[in-house]
Amino acid sequence: MSLVQVTDLSVEFGDLRAVDGLSFRLEQGAALALVGESGSGKSTVASALLGLHRGTGARVGGSIEVAGTDVQQASDDELRRLRGAKAAMVFQDPLSSLDPYYAIGDQIAEVYRVHTRVSRRAARARAVEVLDRVGIPDAQRRSRSRPHEFSGGMRQRALIAMALACEPELLIADEPTTALDVTVQAQILDLLHTLREETGMGLLLVTHDVGVAAESVDEVLVMRHGRVVEHGPVAEVLDAPTKPYTRDLLAAVPRVDVRRTAPGAVSEAGARDGGGAMPEASTEGAKSVSSGHGGAVSPGVAPGDAATVSAGASPRGARAGSSGASAEGAEDVLSGGVAAACPGVASGGGGVGSSGGSAEGAEDVLSGGVAAVSPGVASGGGGAGSSGGSADRPEAASPATVTENARGVTSGASGDFVLEAAGLRREFGRGKRALAAVDGVSLALRRGETLGIVGESGSGKTTLGRMLVGLLEPTAGEVRYEGHARVGVNPAVQMVFQDPVSSLNPRRSVGESIADPLRARGERDENRIRGRVTELLERVGLEGAHYDRYPHEFSGGQRQRVGIARALAADPRVIVCDEPVSALDVTTQAQVVALLGELQRELGLALVFVAHDLAVVRQVSDRVAVMRRGRIVESGPADEVYDNPQDPYTKQLLAAVPALDPQVAARRRAARRELAAA
Amino acid sequence: MSGFAGFALRRAMGAVLTLLVISVIIYVVFYATPGNVAQITCGPRCSPEQVHQVAQQLKLDDPLYLRYWHFLEGILVGQDYSTGTSVAHCSAPCLGQSYQSDQQVTQIILTKLPVSLSLVVGAMVLWLLMGVGTGVLSAWRRGRFSERALTGLTLAGVATPVFVIGLVLMIVICGQLELLPFPEYVSFTDDPEQWAWSLLLPWFTLALNEAAYFARLTRASMLETLAEDHIRTFRAYGVGERSLVGRHALRGALAPIIALNANDFGSAVGGAVLIETLFGLPGIGQELVHAVNVVDLPVVVGMVLVIGFFVVLANAVADVLYAVADRRVVLT
Hints:
The complex is a heterodimer. By secondary structure, chain A is α/β, with parallel strands linked by helices. Chain A contains 25 helices and 24 strands. In chain A, the strands form five sheets. Chain A has a six-stranded mixed sheet with strand order 6-7-8-3-9-10, sandwiched between helices. Chain B is mainly alpha-helical. In chain B, 74% of the residues lie in helices and 2% in strands. Chain B has helices spanning 2-31, 37-42, 48-57, 64-77, 105-140, 145-159, 162-176, 192-226, 229-236, 241-271, 273-278, 284-293, 297-325; strands at 79-82, 87-90. Chain B is globular, with a radius of gyration of 24 Å.
């Protein structure tokens, strides 16, 4: 007998048919993933398996049999005996899924006591046992903690512990890792894998992330609009999808191990129309940047990255920061490193983030290193972010001088940075409780390029982004635009926010929202405003007639387009995108990313792309900076960072990204185990 | 527990500051307003000389800030004052002396306060039991007939003025059914049993109205909590509806209940005038209204300060309870 047997399942909410004629089986101990985009009905199916639609007004048709219980026909008591005891569910958001008022151990014990008639004491002991089982350190003590005292990953472990308490035959995991950082996600997926190996329970995984499915299951069922699109063994479906939708879905998934296919193509803009498309950029600058990208245009070839080429043919120096190499006539735009810009000898002693070294006539635009432009030997040991302690670090480090120097030596180096950050630091809280969210970050952004900033939650990437646009005042350090220090909001640097739902005023039409920057600039002519907004709406792929519509009438992707249109309204040179696609489905994600690339090419925009998703960042960025705990631990041309990471943290991040190929996933899992054991 | 001590200290200092501000406002409002206090105090038949004498005796000719200073001094160290014929001492905390009688304000308050506290504390117990109970019941039976009936009832409770409730109760229970004698206040120290009987009707009158508010609040916040994700978790683990409502949802509804209770308790101490008048309870509210009518300013100021003290105290207690109810709250 199958563990789960669903036949012709349909679920209707009012007029909406969320699930439509779905059938599948799951054998004892097997693992199946329901994969689909939002609105595909996958979570509705998961809830139906436990009869959670009962009493909600949803109409459920067809038959559902789970662990020998006919969910449709079962009495309320029979259902309660199924829930938790035979089939347990793990939810997406582990914070809101646990009761904030009770200790974790008590919550698990409560569930355990519902299904077993044991004493409170025994139930509490069982709670500690399962908490220990899922890898909560010091489970006895931590079982008395409340959910808010746990980290996201620990909470998800606790939720899994609750699921394990009654030794269910089936575990239903509804987006169990979506709210988690990638390294934590890998840990949780590994935990689920191990538990399944040991207990032999079946797994029904609901996820939007094909990579997560590839990591965890034997079979996948691709859903769309409540129906099955494709169903089969995971390797087959992912390797050779037979249905167009599956193919599209897979094609839209950003790959972390594939080089960027469509280059940021500043080159095209420069080549095609040096003056028109980039009116404010000097032609020279544009060209030099474009030449830096020459290689990228040729298909599938490793692009000669911008930093290397523009530095005047000194490939050695490009990654001086992390390799600690000496460089001649080099420039290291990003990262804690030292680079020499004139023909002296520079030796950069570059530990990650704590670079120190001596440099002659060097330039270090980014991050806590030492920059000496004066023609002596500069030696300095820079603790990370503490921008060096060299006596020779004079005003010479000011951008103009640096740029000039760099130009002088490395002829043709673009050197024209549109946006720079020097020693940025931001603290929250006061006195002893002060916490530096960003702790000494320096970076520079060239015209028309895309700088990706990746980091997990709490790395300070959003704080950094907000300081770059002037929404937050730095505690120390400064932001320079076109070489001049800026305080406050700068219309030329705009932001696209993460959550397109909450970043648009629901009570104002989208046209009005887009018009805000125009009005802020003093535009009063309503016809002109309307004309410009219509133009912007069309520019981002919406219709001019959408002016009078309200945010709730749009889908997530469309709302993000509105957000982009609003950012464009101020004619920015730079757009800082803070997790612009993290709330979107992969196919929508791909469209929005494509739109950003298109706009960048046509308008010569420089982009700072802040995101937690390593794959997305790779697919959009020319250069990448990896952030951790407020500092940049590694940076450089995207392909170099991804293909040959130097910092252990970067390696760890990359190892945690779920692979689309189940075999690769298995290998990575093994590698992670080794890494953990070591 | 240094965190708690720090909290208590900061909170106490805040309370003192609040009371100071209240006293300044009260002082300015009452003493700086036009009207001849000496004339009113002396009575309509006083001659100008007598009025002048009274004014001198009450130090009404001193500048306002000086009088305020003496007032503060009295609270901290006590003060001496003339009764016309002799000099009496009023020990700290001295809130001054009534213009109307020779009684000290502190004394007046001490005789009235037990009555008010008896009324409010008893009523509070009742309104919490009835209000929260009704709220929990209607959250549990949500969508059914019994819930709608309860909700309708609470709406009626909110809409009916207290004096109507009180009058009806009194007429029906004491007049028609003769279950209870018409209430006449008996002090707790005299006879605890009679005290409770005498307060039964006032308690219910005050509590019925309040309970309606609490029932509605409890129901609303419980329904809100019931819609949260963690309730779904426990439902998906087979936890029964009774436990979901009584254990998980109620816990989430506690915070707003605590907050509302603090407010209502504090204001009822001085604000239950209608009930005190209706049932002839010699409490703070009644005395305050009387003092305002006869412009007995020291009494007014003293009473307002005492009421303010209870409001501040109730809110401080609420903050502590908040932190106990929800461990995520950090007391600062």
